[in-house]
Design a protein that fits this description.
With 333 residues, this protein is α/β, with parallel strands linked by helices. The chain has three domains: 3-107, 3-Layer(aba) Sandwich (Rossmann fold), CATH 3.40.50.11840; 114-223, 3-Layer(aba) Sandwich (Rossmann fold), CATH 3.40.50.11850; 229-332, 3-Layer(aba) Sandwich (Rossmann fold), CATH 3.40.50.11860. The chain is 29% helix and 20% strand. It is built from eleven helices and 13 strands. The strands form three sheets. It has a five-stranded mixed sheet, sandwiched between helices. Strands 2-1-3-4 form a four-stranded parallel sheet. Bound molecules: iron/sulfur cluster. Iron/sulfur cluster (SF4) is lined by residues 64-65, 67, 173-175, 257-258, 304, 306.
Length: 333
């Protein structure tokens, strides 16, 4: 079995599969956790578990990814297992342990008919191009069908890979377009199953154009190559604005999959090398308002990378943007 197939086995496709899996195991109390939008399903799953004799506890806060598994909270409530609804299992890029409690992952699959969008609009994809097929969790259960369809129509679809943090071939997260980067040298363009600009723009960092098969817009549109360049430039400009400030903050999260201690260490060493006083902060969910009042104007994000552009008053920058400090130094030598 390939590593890709092995990873996919960590996820379940239905609550019935999980109920079957846990039968006979000595779980007594089970935690449930999921994102906004599927809360009614969580209540339904809790009912099904209670009917089978399990006690349940539901995590109140919604979660944006399996980076935020609440196994510690569930355990504190006496649970011996957790069902994480909505996302696939998340692999920690620094290889920290994500699995202290029994966690069953039940990714959410969106029932919008993405295949009919592909079937009705595929001719907008240039047929001379070698294609990489990627997408978000909600549609990855149809990735194989999409691949077969494109191949039938004469497209060359390059074999896919998982990313650093993901478990499904071709799957892209806001913090991991590795599935695209890993094959980008073999493809001319990507076909992306999903909607919105956020994920396609991560894929466009490969330097390739991205055909987005969008079941909300009901057509295929194109995300141009390197569409994040403006955002990156804005971030570098923020570092330049505060480059002479003495006090800098580094923020990480106590969420398991957003707690990047190696990144904190590297960023801290880099800033200290540039003569900065560095303060390290941690919190579960990270809100800009919590970081006002410390007398620090610029913070480095060592938590969820998708938060970096959200702050309005304080500067919040990625670790990569700190490279600008080295460049400034080199130019002054
Ligand atoms: S983008 Fe952020 S919220 Fe989404 S999986 Fe990655 S770390 Fe978690």
């Amino acid at each position: 079995m390939t590593e890709e197939n092995q990873r996919a086995q960590w996820n379940y496709e239905s609550i019935e599969e999980i109920l079957e899996e846990i039968e006979g195991k000595d779980h007594e109390k089970i935690g449930l956790q999921g994102p906004d939008g599927i809360k009614p399903q969580i209540i339904d799953y809790a009912q099904q578990l209670e009917e089978r004799g399990y006690e349940t506890v539901i995590i109140g806060a919604s979660t944006f990814g399996a980076c935020g598994i609440a196994d510690e909270k569930a355990e504190r409530m006496g649970a011996d297992a957790l069902i994480h609804v909505g996302h696939t299992r998340f692999l920690h890029p620094e290889k920290a342990d994500m699995d202290d409690l029994n966690v069953y992952y039940l990714p959410y699959r969106e029932d919008r008919d993405i295949m009919s969008i592909l079937e009705n609009h595929y001719e907008e994809i240039d047929e001379d191009e070698k294609i990489g097929l990627v997408g978000v969790t909600q549609y990855m259960d149809r990735a194989e069908e999409a691949r077969e369809f494109l191949e039938e129509k004469g497209y060359e679809v390059v074999e896919g890979k998982t990313g650093l943090r993901t478990t499904e071939v071709g799957q892209v997260l806001g913090c991991d377009a590795g599935a695209a980067h890993n094959i980008s040298h073999k493809v001319d363009a990507f076909v992306f199953l999903g909607s919105g600009h956020f994920h396609p723009s991560q894929v466009s960092e490969t330097g390739k154009k991205v055909y987005v098969v969008d079941p909300y817009e009901e057509h295929i549109w194109v995300e141009p190559p390197n569409s994040l360049d403006d955002e990156k430039r804005a971030e570098y400009a923020r570092v330049m604005k505060y480059k002479d400030k003495k006090k800098w903050g580094i923020v990480t999260s106590s969420k398991k999959g957003q707690n990047y201690m190696q990144a904190v260490k590297i960023a801290k060493e880099k800033l200290e090398k540039h003569g900065k006083d560095v303060y390290v902060f941690v919190e579960d969910r990270i809100f800009e308002s919590d970081y006002k009042g410390f007398g620090i104007d610029i913070y480095v994000n060592c938590a969820c990378p998708r938060m970096t552009k959200d702050w309005q008053d304080l500067a919040f920058v990625s670790t990569q943007a700190l490279d600008v400090l080295d460049e400034v130094e080199i130019n002054h030598e």
